[in-house]
Prior knowledge:
This protein has helices spanning 4-12, 22-26, 33-72, 79-103, 109-129, 135-144, 151-169, 173-211. It is mainly alpha-helical. The two termini are 13 Å apart.
Amino acid sequence: MVSAMETHRLSTNVITRENWSFKSIFYPKFESKLIENKYLLSYLTNIYPSSHRLLVVILIIHGFIHLFQLFMFKSEIDSQSKIIHLSLLCSSLLLNIFSLILINHLRNRFLSNLISLICLSPLIILSCFYPMECHLYILIISIYTLSHFYLHLSIFVSILITIIISIFTVKSKIYFLLLLIINLIGIYLNRLLEITIRSAYNQLCKSKLDLS
């Protein structure tokens, strides 16, 4: 719990949303190192675990839906594809359930991102094997939003997947353009989410000051 005097010092050093420059939209950061460290601690203990749980829920629901599809529509899927789907979906379910145990004990942004990347890896492989299915769209949006990767890591992973799929699997300019548009939407959502969270934390500090 931040004391009244400390809250005053933090709040006066927080950058208001209106004063952020175009550069800080891509790399938003509080001027005060103290408030930045407080924000990162709050992020790792509260915001990130909640977001990761939502990511896990979505991936588990996605896995069960496609497992149900595998067993209900046997004639439409060949045996080799069924084995690949089954192994990747089961590994996704196990990794995501196991990550729930780890995520609350992590206090390092890099390790948290690594856990999210491991949880998404079966879906990444599935999307590269079967790009015309809906896995890819869920994957790209999840990378930019629920995984809370660093911006450059989100862009790198998503663009790399887009290039691999466009070159080795689906050689269609229209599909490649669609994937680029989804990436642009994902970047916009990523920055909007980051700015909104920091703005909310800024207002929280000011509210504590007002109450004190």
